[in-house]
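REQUEST ID: PR-0412
SUBMITTED BY: lab tech R.K.
PRIORITY: routine
TASK: structure prediction, single protein chain
INPUT:
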Amino acid sequence: MYLSKLEGKEIINLYDGTRMGTLGTAELLFDPESGDIKALLLPGFQGFLKFQNKEEITIPWEAIRKVGTDMMLVDLRPERRRARNERGQV
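STATUS: complete
OUTPUT:
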């Protein structure tokens, strides 16, 4: 599957059933030594009002459970969530 095929899919967290939004422009985090994909990085966005900022979401590759035609199911438990400054430690 191409990364571009993920664009527009709704992200649902299996852990708590929350809708995390829609995949827009995503980036991949690679392990430079092995070439393995480590995580999917979803940039934050700014809403209509400036205070509606969301921080970047890092989805570890192993947390992706299923990619369907219109949604992606992930298992993001609180201990798996990463902040932007932990990018290299996924």
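NOTES: The chain is about 0% helix and 35% strand.
REVIEWED BY: pending
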